[in-house]
Design goal:
This protein has about 110 residues and is mostly beta strands. Helix content is about 0%, strand content about 55%. Strands 2, 4, 5, 6, 9, 10 and 11 form a seven-stranded mixed sheet that branches. Strands 1-3-8-7 form a four-stranded antiparallel sheet, with no helix packed on it.
Length: about 110
């Protein structure tokens, strides 16, 4: 499967962004979808994940209560709504699809200024 992430950009602290990740090439509904992020100083960090149906979601402690993951299986797309952004949320965000193996998108940069 190929994953194409988009929606990154620059925003001030307290603002919002919505990331999208479109999948193509395989049956999207088989995949558990997730978002990770990475900065040059840190290892790749788990942000959020969502089950195949969208009924269950999981969040990293750093983003609980501020970020929301969702998916539209008809559009083969997973979203990450990011609210109340903080400068420490600055990172490259990657989407990942998992089914039999992991597939990674190319990443989209989010920059939050104070």
């Amino acid at each position: 499967v190929q994953l194409q992430a988009s929606g990154g950009g620059s925003v001030q602290a307290g603002g919002s962004l919505r990331l999208s990740c479109v999948a193509s090439g395989r049956t999207y509904t088989n995949f558990v979808m997730a978002w990770f992020r990475q900065t040059p100083e840190k290892e790749r960090q788990f942000v959020a994940a969502i089950s195949q149906s969208g009924a269950t979601s999981y969040y990293g402690d750093a983003v609980k209560g501020r970020f929301t993951i969702s998916r539209d299986n008809a559009k083969s797309t997973v979203y990450l709504q990011m609210d109340s952004l903080k400068p420490e949320d600055t990172a490259v965000y990657y989407c990942r699809g998992s089914y039999q193996r992991d597939y990674w998108g190319q990443g989209t940069l989010v920059t939050v200024s104070s």
